[in-house]
Amino acid sequence: MTTSFAPLANDTFLRACMRQATDYTPLWLMRQAGRYLPEYKATRAKAGSFMGLATNVDYATEVTLQPLDRFPLDAAILFSDILTVPDAMGLGLSFAEGEGPRFAKAVRDEAAVAQLAVPDMDRLRYVFDAVTSIRRALNGRVPLIGFSGSPWTLACYMVEGRGSDDYRLVKSLMYARPDLMHRILAVNADAVAAYLNAQIAAGAQAVMIFDSWGGVLADGCFQEFSLEYTRRVLAQLKRSGVDGQPVPRIVFTKGGGIWLEDMKNLDCEVLGLDWTANLGQARAIVGGAVGGPGKALQGNIDPNVLFAPPEAIAAQVRAVLDSFGKPHTDESTTGPTHVFNLGHGISQHTPPEHVAALVETVHGYSRSLRKR
């Protein structure tokens, strides 16, 4: 596999992740390639199914680039699904129309847990081939983010067999048989680390761990069953990419704003926040001082803001940027920085022209903030 990629024309996102001063606040959107775009729907119709889309290198490349052709976003994110890893473990992933993901086999007893193992990464070759293909197609426009679900979030789907409203099965197992839950999480953590490292080797320039369901845990359980295994993943990740550049690591726990003190010492560069967190307070806890250590922050506008008229969207964007405050501007050192994003994935019902208003306001207003 060749490792020669075009030089980056826009590295603003990567610099913000590394807490370096930037001219404006960079942004990308969770689920930016997806069902709110008519061109995505057309490609998905050609592919025939979600997995048909995700496992076809050309289609995955096409849909990853679609939002960048519409909006001047500062990063691309690999088009894939967080459940590819348990699928490669042999659990049989499928997507029923209108129902979301489900597994043919759930992991709920000792025998099923005993069978779990880190999968052969060759079973996920389609993901790594897509990473390389997308990186080439981007041709240096913006960086490419790779990602995985967190060990805990993957375990939720593996035990429940599908998405859940109450997490009854996975929490029952956790409380009744913590030994089994720890075994699932250990396998998941090592699998996620191998998966992300293979994405980095294929050309990913940043990686993100989606702990989408960390926030459903009780205090104490979050630290033991989610955070501890995210830490295990981070400890194993490569620090530089195929081009020798640092690969920032982003951790996003939906509902995790209450545990920022616990996450302060995570071995990652960026913490993502949902819309319930206050960016200014988060900056005070984990953002660090100019010249000192700290975390870059990512987030955190409510995705439903995008259903309001463009002028209301602009007002909410300014409020989020004001909440973080003026980012540091000293190019000779590091300091508090912000990557603008949604607090969770974009809704499929979002009007694309509303996204355009959001992007324009983030770029314009964040430039003006730095001049104050």
Task: Give a structural overview.
This protein has helices at 12-17, 38-47, 50-54, 57-70, 84-91, 110-115, 125-138, 151-160, 168-176, 178-202, 221-236, 260-263, 279-287, 310-324, 352-370, and strands at 76-77, 93-96, 100-103, 144-149, 206-211, 249-253, 270-272, 296-301, 338-342. It has 15 helices and 9 strands. The protein has a single domain (12-370), classed as TIM Barrel, CATH 3.20.20.210. The strands form 2 sheets. It has a 7-stranded parallel β-sheet with strand order 1-4-5-6-7-8-9. Strand 5, helix 11 and strand 6 (249-253) form a beta-alpha-beta unit. With 372 residues, the protein is α/β, with parallel strands linked by helices.
User: Strand share of the residues?
Assistant: 5-15%
CATH classification class: Alpha Beta
Task: List segments where confidence is low: pLDDT < 50 over at least 5 consecutive residues.
Answer: none
Q: How many strands, which pairing sense, and closed or not: the largest β-sheet?
A: 7 strands, parallel
Write the CATH fold name: TIM Barrel
User: What is the topology, as strand order, of the major beta sheet?
Assistant: 1-4-5-6-7-8-9
Distance between the termini: 47 Å
Taking Cα atoms only, what radius of gyration do you get, to the nearest Å? 20 Å
